[in-house]
Amino acid sequence: MKNKRSLLAIPYVGWMALFVVAPIVMVVIYAFTTADFSVTGENFTRMGTFTVIFTRSFKLAIIATLVCLLIGYPLSYAMAREGKGFQRVAMLLIMLPMWVNFLLRTYSMMSIMENNGLINQFFAAIGLFDLINGIFGTDIQYFKMIGTQGAVVVGMVYNYLPFMVLPIYSTLIKMDNTLLEAARDLGADSAAVFRKVILPLSLPGILSGVTMVFVPSVSTFAISRLLGGGIQMLLGDLIEQQFLGGAYNPHLGSAIALVMMVIVVACMWVMNRFGEGEEQAVML
Amino acid sequence: MKKLTALTLACTLAASLALTGCTIERVDGTSTGGSSTDNGGSTDNGGSTGNTQTDGKRVLNVCNWGEYIDVDLIQEFQEKTGIQVNYQTAESNESLYSLLKTGGANYDVICPSDYMISQLIEEDMIQKLNYDNIPNYEKIGDQFKGLAFDPNNEYTVPSTWGTLGIISNKTMVDGEITSWSSLYDDANKGNVLLINNSRDAFGNALIYLGYSVNTTNEDEIRKAYDLIADANKRGIFQGKVMDEVFNKMEQGNAAIATYYAGDYLTMYEVNPDLAYVLPEEGANWFVDAWCILKNAQHVSEAEEWINFLASTESSLANMDYIWYASPNTEALEKYPEYYKETYGEDLDMDLYNIMAPSAEVLKKCENYVVLPEETRNLYNDLWIQLGL
Fold first, then answer.
1. Which residue is closest to A115 within chain B, CA to CA?
2. Domain B162-285+364-387: top CATH class
3. A248 closest CB neighbour out of B8, B13, B97
4. Contact at 8 Å (CB) between B158 and B140?
5. Which of A7, A111, B259, B277 has CA 20 to 30 A from B126's CA?
6. Residue A95 falls within a domain, yes or no?
7. Where are the alpha helices (DSSP H) in A126-198?
């Protein structure tokens, strides 16, 4: 009987093979060859020049992930504890932006954060700049946001926060309340209950949330191009340039993508060691 | 059960690798194999072999730049000829080139710029045209023929031309902009938009330094790089942009940008504070031209398309819509009159001169030609280095 049921997996296995396994195999082939498809390791020796971009990508992705966790965890916790009404409204507010296409949202973030954008216009209208200029004797007309690393992080957090909230929320909401009561019974104060019961039990949610925020953040190119002004080049931009830009070198592009994948997998592996003994976090 | 799973996996993998095999052939092969070669070689009316796939219905696959045609013209062409046009757009010469190289696209007719055309000719990717089937070619002005990218007039029919200059917001800069130095100057710190393609960005710097935009001298290119990199380090640039420039300049989010004359005129309609200048050191002028790909399936349709767009009426309508000048002499002369008829007011001749500068102005401007591969690689390496 069991065998029969696994037949149902065939369409998915086929799909995976065609759209996941095959592309990865192609990436590996391209990464280890030159333009005329002779085997080489040359693509990887050039990787050293891109250290700055690797560091910047991972740094910004880690910051964005931490910010998402710091905002997302308390929110998920509040949602799981509050009544149904709050849950519904909060859930709607989290899902609502996701109904709009990701690129459109990032474009609008761009016009919001421009030098002459909504935020700066608002500050100017309430006289904030006059106030600052009056106190410090400076002459500023706007806060520079576009083109900074901060703007890129804001874009990542804005776009990927739901992916942190949802998995954490679903582990918290499933948590057995009697466990918390038992902990209380045995003399634990609120801090101890959180540290010894809630946090460990929600760890799988945290781990999958972190994965789901970190991985797209580290490989994004739209966010850095639009909000980073194209100056804060990330790995995604570097790879895109190899395929669509003037550089046209899919072999180098594949090599960079491969190195990035290996580092990401290594990060995930290390992170999952923390969750050892707990329910394994979903990998991707 | 596991076996079955493994088998499916293996089969799909094999199939997809076989598919990859095809693309690989396309990447380095000069011909794409199969039935398209016989068509590609002959430049005479390809109608007999061109439209075999589509049960008699004539189709044409066009790739052009975004916002680069009066869409009514596509409709008109379809009605006139019964040819169904699959119209697609590419963002830049470079992305068009990668689309062609990866073999993902099967366009018949494309509209690249001068330097890309010579690269495509060099790599044997476009075919010679049969000008007997494109009678309107005669109407193209002589100054657009025999240019460096197609010296013997064999491959192309010019479609649009213009200059690359400096766009500035008069309310945000002090004094008048006259030199490329304003791009690298501390005066406009944080408010300059660098154009996001290496050829144009380096080209501007090379002109400023007094070198040719087509130099292959590594020292000169490195000096241009140093100029840009140094300005970048000092925080002069707000960002590297292509079409995002419209929004940023129209809304007053940046003071200075380099972009194409035709697009400036579009921005000017929204924000009249914007000014366009061709700096005193000279500038780049470009020609975009229609070409038919070597492996095109619909050659006769492509010829009709090119001929249709080269006509004076189409050129006028298109010029009016996209604000890029047409190389059709008659259309260029008639445009002010056409404008008056259409809008009931006189065309501002300053704007006309920005769209279609005189031969005298063009003399100070230089066309791009294709750079040798070594230089292209240098451009790419330096461009990436700029992003570090």
1. B253
2. alpha beta
3. B97
4. yes
5. B259
6. yes
7. 128-136, 149-173, 177-185, 190-193
